[in-house]
Write a structure and sequence with these properties.
Radius of gyration of chain C: 19 Å
CATH superfamily of the largest domain in chain C: Beta-grasp domain
Order of helices and strands of chain C: EEHEEEHHHHH
Number of strands of chain C: 5
CATH architecture of the largest domain in chain C: Roll
Largest interface: B-C, 79 and 69 residues
CATH class of the largest domain in chain A: Alpha Beta
Oligomer: heterotrimer
Chains: A alpha+beta (about 350), B alpha+beta (about 850), C alpha+beta (about 180)
Radius of gyration of chain A: 20 Å
Order of helices and strands of chain A: EHEHEEEHHHHHHHEEEEEEEHHH
Number of strands of chain A: 12
Strand order of the largest sheet of chain C: 2-1-5-3-4
Distance between the termini of chain C: 74 Å
Distance between the termini of chain A: 42 Å
Number of helices of chain A: 12
Largest sheet of chain A: 5 strands, antiparallel
Structural class of chain A: alpha+beta
Helix content of chain C: 25-40%
CATH topology of the largest domain in chain A: Uridine Diphospho-n-acetylenolpyruvylglucosamine Reductase, domain 3
Number of domains of chain C: 2
C-alpha cells in the first residue's frame, strides 16, 4: 500500500497562529481537506517536512449569503454544492462544484483547496518510482517538460473546476499574511506557469472567496460544461464556464468566458467575450464567439483524451455552455454526466 | 421452471428423480454474510505475530543488463531486516511448462519498467518503502521494443534467449481443410484489418501475500491467487523444497478476472524471505504495482478474410476464413503461448465454417507481460469477426440477425478445427435479444445519431487440458460426514467473487438433501483440499461441479445403503430432501439426515467420499489441438443501443440486451451477477479501458513506461457510466455440466464490444475497426465520410510476418482423423520448440526444413 | 524523517479506543492496523476508488485521504459497526441476497456510503442512488445489483414488504419470437 511519508503536522487554532507558523517555516505546506496534498505527498511529487492544517481556523469556515456569496476557504465542497441558496442564485457554481471528483471526496475537499489545487500532468501525477523511470520532469526534480521538450516552462494544466466558474462570475479572493491582507479578482491569483501557477506569496493564506450578487441568476446568465471521460471522479480535461449579462433588449452588456484544463491557469477567452458585447444571444453570435474561444486554449498531451480532439471540443463545449446560458436548446451530447444541479 | 436433474443411470442413482430443491433457485451466497460484514479475510487482512513487510525494488528502465546493486544506504534505514536479490533465485518459473522464463528477482537483466530486482524486508511498511528507495541499481541500457512491428524489425538483441525467432515468442500457422478452394468457390470475399488495444483486469483488491514459516522447514503462503495449485508448483520448483512442505492457501480474492492466475514474483519472494528471516512476511502491492504485474488483455492486430456464398434460400454461408493475429505479449511468456492459440481457436464454434486457417504471432516487448483476462485471447478475434460479419450483412443486404441465424454451427458436431460442439443455444440467444430490443423493427431505422448493433460470442466451460501434462483429475472434491450431521466439503477451487463456494455447497446440499447451513467448506488450501486447478478458463462450475456431484452421490449411496438396511426398505426408494432421508412411497418413514449419517457411520465406520473430474478427450490430435477443446461451450448474444453526437464523436451506450446460454443456472442470481458484470467489463473495454504506454523522444530518453498506472487515469466505468441491462438466461441443460450447467463468467463479455462498434455504424454510418472507441476516432471517421473518403477509423494493414509452413489438418468432413498430415516439428516454425521447452535457433530450424507444402496430400485425404 | 507520534481517543462504531500511531498514518491505516478493523479496504491509496469509505460524523469520507490525527472527537463508523447485534442491517441483508457483493472488496465502502444516503434520503430514486455512490468503483457487479439492493433495503427500512421483481433474480422472461 502506498503510504504518506513522515512529516510534522501542525493544527493551529487561529488564523494568526497559522500565519505565524508559516512565517516561521516558509517551506511548510498548507493543507485543508487533504484531497490534493495527501495523494501528492504519497507519490512524493510534492514534499513536506511540516504540514499546517487550516481546518481548525474558525475564520476560514462557513458559507455566508448576503448580497453576494462569501465562501470561507475551508467550506466543504459538498456543503456549497447542496446549499439551497447557492443552488438557487449561483446554479452554475453549484454545478461546477458538484462536478468535482466524487461525493465522498467532496465531503472532504474544500473550496480553498480546489481553487488552489495543484496543476496536473500525466508526467507529474505519478509515483516516485515512475518519475524516476522517465528521469523526472520540469515540474518536479527534472529539467525537461516532456509534454513539449522545447518548452522553457512547465505545461501542467489547471485542474480546478470551481476556478473557471468563479472567475467567470467575477469572484474575488481574500489573502491574509502576517503583514496584512488583500483582496484580488480571482483570475489574478493565477499565472501561466505550471509550477508557479499561483500568484501568491508563500506566507499568504487564502481565507475567503467572494462571489458578487450581480453574478446571481437574477442578474446573470451562466453555465458550466465539463469534459471528462466518466460521469464522476475524473478531473476536467476541458471545462467551459460562461457568464453573460444582458440589457433589457437582450443585448450582451458584459461577458466573461473562462476555460479550464487547457492552460496552466484558467484561460480567459477574452476575444470571444468581447465579440458578444452589444450582440443578441442568437445561435449565430454564440457559435462565432465559441469559434473565437479556440485560440487562447492550449490543450496538451498531458491528460486524458487526444489533445487535438480536445482542441476541437473547446469550440463545441464553449458553444454548448453559451447556448445553455442563453436558454437555447442544448444540442451537444455531454459525457455521461450525472444529474446536473438544477437551478 | 426447474429442470429435471441430470440424467444418471439407475445404478448410479439410488433415489428417484425429483425436482431440485435448491438448484435453479436464487439463494444467498454462502459467503454473503461475511462479505457484507467485513468478516471476509482477504490476504492483506491477515496479520501474524512478528510479521514484517517486504517491498520490491522494481526496475526503472525498460530493458537493461544489471551492472551492480548497492544496498549500502538502504541497509542503514532503521528497521531493515534483510534483502534478497536475483542471486537468491537461480531457478526460473512461469505458468506454462514451455515458458519458464521468469525469476522471482531478476538475476542479470531487466525486461520492463516494473521488473523486480531487489526485495527489502523491514519491520514496518514505511521502513521497507524508504529502504527500497535507497537501493541503487546500476543498469546498462539495451535497445527497447515497444510493439509487434518493432519486434519484427528488431530480432536482436533478444529480450529472451528462447522463442521461435528473434523477439517472436511464438509463431503458429494451422490450416484446417481446403481454405484456398473455399475462397475460390466464394461469391464474394471480405477482408478486414482490425485492432484491439490491450487492457487490464483492475481487480479492486491489490495482490497481497503473507508467508509464515512453520516448524523447521515448512512455509505457508496466504495469497490473493486464483490458482493456488500452480503457485504451489512454482514455489516448490523455485524454493527447492518438497511440495509437501509448502502450503498455499488462496484467500478470498477481491476480484481476479484472470489477473491473479499466474504465480507471481512477490509470492515467491515472501516465502523465501520468511524462511530466511524465520518470521511471517507480508507484501501488499500498490495499485501501480498491480498494473505492472498486469497479465492483462493482449493488444492484438488482426486480419480476417472470409469467403461467402449466397445460398438459393437467401441465406449466406461461409466458404472459408483466414484469420491472422499479431499479439503484443509484453516482457514474459505468462500464458502467452495459450493466448496465441486462443486468438484462433474459437472462431469456428459459432458459425459453420468448412475451412479455416489461423496464423498467429506473439512478440516479446519491453512492457508488462500480458496474459489471460476474462475471455482469454478470444475477445479480440471475436470483435474482429463480429464487426466483419456486420459489414458482410450490410453488403449482402441481410439483417445482421438473419445473417447469423442462417449460418449457425449445429449442435453435436465437430468443427473444422476439431472442437466438439455439444448443446448450442446461440440461435435462442439471438432471437431473445432481437425480440427484446425490437431489432428487426428498429435496426437501420432509428433517427440519425441513434443506432443498434448486434453481436455474438462463445466461450469454453473449462479448458479441456490442464496447463501441465498429466493424467490426474482437473478437479477433486472430498466430503466428510459424521454423527454431527454436518457435511464438510473440501476442494482446491478458489473463490474469487464469482460464487464458486456457493456452487460447491449448493450441489452437495442438493444431492444430500440438506440445507446450505449444514455445509461447511474448506477450499483452496493445498495442504487440506484435493487439487482443483483453479479459477480460470470458466472451468469451476463444470469441473468442480461434476467432481462434487460424484462425491455427493457416493455419499448418498452409502447413506442410502445403511438407511435402507435399518428401515428395511430398498435403498433405491429413498429420497434425500429437506434434511431427511425417507421412503418415496411413504414419506413418513425415514430418518433425519443426522440419524441417517449416524446409521451409516455405525454401519461403515468413519465416512468420507471423493469425486474427481477429468474432461472427455478431444478429437483433435494435431499440435496445438490442446487449446480450444472444452466439455461444453456457452453462447451469448447482445444487442446494444447507442447515441452518437456527430459534432463531437462522443457516444454513450443507452441500453444492453444480452442473452446467455447458461445450460442450467445453479443459482440464477449469481448467474445474473456474472452476466451484468461481464457486460460491464466489456463496455469498459470498448468505452475507455486501455493499457497505454509512453515512450519519450528517443534522442533524449530510453524510457518506455505505462502511461497512467492509477485508478484515476486508467478509466474504468463508474456508477454514472453503466446503461440499463436486460438479461435473458437461456436454459438448455448440457449433458456435460452438473445439473446441465455451463459457464457464465466470461462468455457474456464477448459480444459487447463488437455490438457497440456495430451500433455506432447503425447510428452514424462509420466503421470504427478498433477498440476502445474513442470519440476522436468517431469524429475522424465522420470527417472522412463527409469528404467522401472511406468512412472508417482503424489500422491500415497487417504486418508482413513469415508464418512459415502451415500445419495441414484435414477436417472431419474431409474424413480426417484429427491429426495433421505434415507434423514434423523441425519443419514448422510453430514446432521449433521441443516438448521439453528447450529452443532451437531459427538457423537450426531452417537447416532442418526440408518438406514442401502438402496440398496434394490434403486433397488426397478428402 | 519525522518520528512524530499522535496519541488520541478514537470513537469508532460507538466505542472509544485509545490509540498511539505515527502522525502521518491515515485513518485507513489506523483502523486496519491499530484497531484490527480490516473490514475497511484500500483499492487505490489515492482517493480514486472509494473502497476505503467510512462515515465520519455521518458523512462518507475516504479514509485513505484522512489523517487519523484529525479524528479526535469525531464519530467514525465502519462496516463492522453496521450490523445490529447479530442481525444484519437491511443494506447488508439485501446486498447478500442480491449478490450485490461479489468479491466483496468494494462492498464495505459502498455499504457505508449507502447508509449515509438512506439516513438523509429514505426514498432515493435510482439516479440518486447512483449519484451518491458515484465515488465507489466496483469491478464485479456492473452496479445494477448494488442499486437494486440499496433500493430494496430502503423499502425495508421504510417498513415496506415485498421483494424485487423476479427478473432481478432470474433475468427477464425470454420473449417469444418465431424462428426466422
Amino acid at each position: 500500500m502506498l503510504r504518506l511519508p513522515a512529516f510534522r503536522f501542525l493544527q493551529p487554532k487561529t488564523l494568526g497562529e497559522a500565519a505565524a507558523m508559516l512565517a516561521g517555516e516558509p517551506e511548510a505546506r498548507l493543507v485543508a481537506g487533504g484531497t490534493d496534498l495527501w495523494p501528492n505527498l504519497k507519490r512524493r511529487h510534492q514534499k513536506a517536512q511540516t504540514v499546517v492544517s487550516l481546518m481548525r481556523l474558525p475564520e476560514l469556515r462557513g458559507l455566508h449569503v448576503n448580497g453576494g456569496l462569501r465562501l470561507g476557504a475551508t467550506a466543504l465542497l459538498a456543503d456549497i454544492e447542496t446549499d439551497t441558496q447557492v443552488r438557487a442564485r449561483w446554479p452554475s457554481l453549484a454545478t461546477a462544484i458538484a462536478s468535482i471528483s466524487s461525493p465522498p471526496l467532496r465531503n472532504m475537499g474544500t473550496i480553498g483547496g480546489n481553487v488552489c489545487v495543484d496543476t496536473r500532468c500525466t508526467y507529474y501525477n505519478q509515483t516516485e518510482d515512475w518519475r524516476r523511470s522517465i528521469g523526472y520532469c520540469l515540474k518536479a526534480e527534472g529539467s525537461t517538460c516532456w509534454v513539449a521538450t522545447s518548452s522553457p516552462t512547465c505545461l501542467a494544466h489547471t485542474a480546478s473546476d470551481s476556478a473557471p466558474m468563479l472567475c467567470a462570475l467575477g469572484a474575488q479572493a481574500r489573502l491574509v499574511a502576517p503583514d496584512g491582507e488583500r483582496e484580488i479578482p480571482l483570475e489574478q491569483l493565477y499565472q501561466d506557469d505550471g509550477i508557479q501557477y499561483l500568484a501568491k506569496r508563500s506566507d499568504e493564506i487564502l481565507t475567503d472567496l467572494l462571489v458578487p450578487g450581480e453574478a446571481d441568476a437574477a442578474h446573470c446568465r451562466s453555465a458550466f460544461w465539463k469534459l471528462r471521460r466518466r460521469g464522476t471522479i475524473d478531473f476536467a480535461v476541458l471545462s467551459a464556464a460562461v457568464a453573460l449579462w444582458t440589457d433589457p433588449s437582450g443585448e450582451v452588456t458584459r461577458a466573461r468566458i473562462y476555460l479550464g484544463a487547457v492552460g496552466s491557469q484558467p484561460v480567459a477567452a477574452t476575444d470571444a467575450a468581447q465579440f458578444l458585447i452589444g450582440k443578441p444571444l442568437t445561435a449565430e453570435t454564440l457559435a462565432e464567439a465559441a469559434r473565437l474561444a479556440r485560440k487562447p486554449a492550449y490543450p496538451m498531451d498531458n491528460t486524458d483524451f487526444q489533445a487535438q480532439w480536445r482542441g476541437t471540443m473547446v469550440v463545441q463545449y464553449t458553444e454548448a455552455a453559451l447556448r445553455e446560458a442563453a436558454g437555447l436548446p442544448v444540442e451537444r451530447l455531454a459525457p455521461r454526466h450525472l444529474p446536473v444541479v438544477a437551478g | 421452471m426447474a429442470e429435471p436433474i441430470r440424467k444418471i443411470t439407475p445404478e448410479e442413482d439410488p433415489a428417484p428423480e425429483r425436482e431440485p430443491r435448491l438448484i435453479g433457485k436464487p439463494f444467498r451466497r454462502v459467503d454473503g454474510r461475511a462479505k457484507v460484514t467485513g468478516a471476509t479475510r482477504f490476504a492483506d487482512d491477515l496479520s501474524f505475530p512478528r510479521m514484517c513487510w517486504v517491498r520490491l525494488v522494481r526496475s526503472t528502465v525498460p530493458h537493461a543488463v544489471i551492472r551492480s546493486i548497492d544496498l549500502g544506504e538502504a541497509e542503514k534505514v532503521p528497521g531493515v531486516l534483510g534483502f534478497l536479490t536475483g542471486k537468491d533465485f537461480p531457478i526460473p518459473f512461469g505458468i506454462l511448462p514451455v515458458s519458464q522464463d521468469e525469476h522471482a528477482l531478476c538475476p542479470d537483466k531487466v525486461r520492463f519498467v516494473g521488473d523486480p530486482v531487489v526485495a527489502v524486508a523491514a519491520t514496518t511498511e514505511d521502513a521497507a518503502y524508504e529502504a527500497a528507495w535507497k537501493v541503487k541499481v546500476d543498469y546498462e541500457p539495451l535497445p527497447t521494443i515497444g510493439s509487434v512491428q518493432e519486434a519484427l524489425d528488431t530480432p536482436e538483441p533478444r529480450i529472451h534467449d528462447y522463442g521461435d525467432e528473434g523477439n517472436l515468442h511464438k509463431v503458429v500457422s494451422m490450416t484446417f481443410g481446403a481454405v484456398e478452394e473455399g475462397f475460390a468457390a466464394a461469391d464474394e470475399i471480405f477482408e478486414d484489418t482490425i485492432w484491439y488495444e490491450g487492457n487490464t483486469h483492475l481487480p479492486m483488491e491489490q495482490h497481497s501475500a503473507v508467508a509464515v514459516p512453520e516448524d523447521d522447514d515448512r512455509v505457508t503462503l496466504w495469497s490473493s491467487s486464483q490458482t493456488p495449485h500452480y503457485v504451489h508448483r512454482a514455489l516448490t520448483k523455485v524454493l527447492g523444497l518438497p511440495a509437501s512442505r509448502i502450503r498455499v492457501v488462496a484467500c478470498s480474492n477481491g476480484g481476479g478476472f484472470g489477473g491473479k492466475s499466474d504465480p507471481f514474483n512477490h509470492e515467491i519472494v515472501v516465502a523465501k524471505m520468511a524462511l530466511k528471516l524465520g518470521r511471517p512476511v507480508k507484501i501488499t502491492l500498490t495499485r501501480e504495482e498491480v498494473f505492472l504485474c498486469h497479465r492483462g488483455r493482449h493488444p492484438v492486430l488482426m486480419s480476417v478474410k472470409t469467403g461467402i456464398k449466397r445460398e438459393s434460400d437467401g441465406r449466406v454461408s461461409i466458404t472459408a476464413q483466414r484469420l491472422q493475429t499479431a499479439l503484443d505479449g509484453g516482457a514474459y511468456g505468462s500464458y502467452g503461448v495459450a493466448s496465441t492459440y486462443y486468438t484462433g481457436a474459437l472462431q469456428t464454434v459459432t458459425y459453420k465454417m468448412p475451412a479455416y486457417e489461423f496464423q498467429g504471432v506473439r512478440a516479446f516487448t519491453n512492457k508488462p507481460p500480458c496474459g489471460p483476462k476474462r475471455g482469454h485471447g478470444t475477445p479480440q478475434p471475436r470483435f474482429a469477426f463480429e464487426v466483419h460479419l456486420d459489414k458482410i450483412a450490410a453488403k449482402t443486404g441481410l439483417n445482421p440477425a438473419d445473417l447469423r441465424l442462417g449460418m449457425l454451427a449445429e449442435p453435436d458436431t465437430v468443427t473444422a478445427n476439431w472442437l466438439r460442439v455439444g448443446t448450442m443455444g446461440l440461435g435462442k440467444c439471438i432471437e431473445a435479444v432481437v425480440a427484446g430490443s425490437g431489432f428487426r423493427e428498429r435496426w437501420g431505422k432509428l433517427p440519425p445519431g441513434r443506432g443498434l448493433g448486434l453481436a455474438c460470442g462463445s466461450y469454453l466451460c473449462g479448458a479441456g487440458l490442464p496447463i501441465y501434462w498429466n493424467h490426474m483429475p482437473q478437479s477433486g472434491v472430498m466430503i466428510k460426514l459424521d454423527r454431527s450431521g454436518g457435511v464438510a466439503v473440501f476442494c482446491g477451487q478458489a473463490e474469487i467473487g464469482q460464487g464458486s463456494d456457493s456452487v460447491l455447497a449448493a450441489i452437495v446440499a442438493e444431492i444430500l438433501g440438506v440445507s446450505l447451513s449444514d455445509i461447511r467448506l474448506c477450499v483452496a488450501d493445498t495442504d487440506l483440499t484435493p487439487v482443483d486447478l483453479g479459477s480460470y478458463s470458466s472451468r469451476v462450475t463444470l469441473m468442480m461441479g461434476n467432481a462434487a456431484v460424484q462425491a455427493a452421490e457416493r455419499a448418498r449411496e452409502q447413506i442410502a445403503q445403511a438407511v435402507g438396511q435399518q428401515l428395511e426398505i430398498p435403498s433405491g426408494r429413498l429420497v434425500f430432501a429437506d434434511g431427511r432421508v425417507f421412503d418415496a412411497t411413504d414419506p413418513d418413514t425415514g430418518l433425519s439426515f443426522q440419524d441417517a449419517v449416524i446409521a451409516t457411520e455405525a454401519r461403515f465406520g468413519t465416512l468420507a467420499t471423493t469425486g474427481s473430474y477429468i474432461p472427455p478427450r478431444s478429437p483433435g490430435k494435431y499440435r496445438g489441438a490442446g487449446v480450444g477443446p472444452s466439455p461444453a461451450y456457452s453462447y451469448s448474444a447482445a444487442v446494444i443501443e447507442v447515441e452518437v453526437d456527430p459534432a463531437t464523436g462522443l457516444w454513450n451506450p443507452l441500453h444492453v440486451w444480452i442473452a446467455h446460454d447458461i445450460g442450467k443456472s445453479i443459482n440464477p442470481v449469481l448467474v445474473m451477477g456474472q452476466v451484468e458484470g461481464g457486460v460491464y467489463m466489456g463496455l469498459g473495454e470498448v468505452m475507455m479501458e486501455e493499457s497505454a504506454f509512453r515512450r519519450l523522444p528517443r534522442h533524449l530518453s530510453n524510457a518506455l513506461v505505462h502511461k497512467f498506472p492509477s485508478m484515476l487515469e486508467y478509466k474504468s466505468p463508474s456508477f454514472a457510466d453503466m446503461p440499463p441491462v436486460t438479461t435473458y438466461l437461456i436454459e438448455d441443460p448440457d449433458p456435460q455440466g452438473p445439473f446441465g450447467a455451463k459457464e457464465v463468467g466470461q462468455g457474456p463479455l464477448l459480444p459487447v464490444m463488437p455490438a457497440v462498434a456495430n451500433a455506432i455504424y447503425d447510428a452514424v454510418g462509420v466503421r470504427i475497426d478498433q477498440s476502445p472507441i474513442h470519440p476522436h476516432m468517431v469524429l475522424k471517421a465522420l470527417q472522412a465520410k463527409a469528404k467522401g473518403d472511406e468512412a472508417r477509423f482503424g489500422p491500415k494493414a497487417f504486418p508482413e510476418v513469415d508464418f512459415g509452413e502451415t500445419l495441414l489438418v484435414p477436417t472431419p468432413a474431409q474424413g480426417g482423423d484429427g491429426k495433421a498430415i505434415n507434423d514434423f516439428k523441425d519443419k514448422l516454425r510453430s514446432g521449433m520448440r521441443s516438448a521439453s521447452g528447450t529452443m532451437m535457433s531459427r538457423e537450426e530450424a531452417l537447416r532442418n526444413k526440408k518438406v514442401s507444402v502438402l496440398t496434394t496430400e490434403l486433397k488426397g485425404a478428402r | 524523517m519525522s518520528d512524530d507520534l499522535t496519541t488520541l481517543r478514537l470513537r469508532v462504531n460507538g466505542e472509544t479506543r485509545a490509540v498511539v500511531f505515527p502522525t502521518h498514518h491515515t485513518l485507513l491505516e489506523v483502523l486496519r492496523e491499530e484497531l484490527a478493523l480490516t473490514g475497511t479496504k484500500h483499492g487505490c491509496e489515492l482517493g480514486e476508488c472509494g473502497a476505503c469509505a467510512v462515515l465520519v460524523d455521518g458523512r462518507p469520507v475516504l479514509s485513505c485521504l484522512a489523517l487519523a490525527a484529525e479524528m479526535e472527537g469525531r464519530e467514525i463508523e465502519t462496516v463492522e459497526g453496521l450490523q445490529i447485534g447479530n442481525e444484519l442491517h437491511p443494506l447488508q441483508a439485501t446486498f447478500a441476497d442480491l449478490n450485490a457483493a461479489q468479491c466483496g472488496y468494494c462492498t464495505p465502502g459502498i455499504l457505508m456510503t449507502a447508509k449515509a444516503l438512506l439516513a438523509e434520503n429514505p426514498r432515493p430514486s435510482g439516479d440518486e442512488i447512483r449519484e451518491a455512490l458515484a465515488g465507489n468503483l466496483c469491478r464485479c457487479t456492473g452496479y445494477h445489483k448494488i442499486v437494486e439492493a440499496v433500493d430494496w433495503a430502503a423499502a425495508r427500512m421504510r417498513g415496506e414488504e415485498g421483494t424485487p421483481p423476479a427478473e432481478v433474480f432470474y433475468g427477464s422472461p425470454v420473449p417469444d419470437a418465431p424462428r426466422v
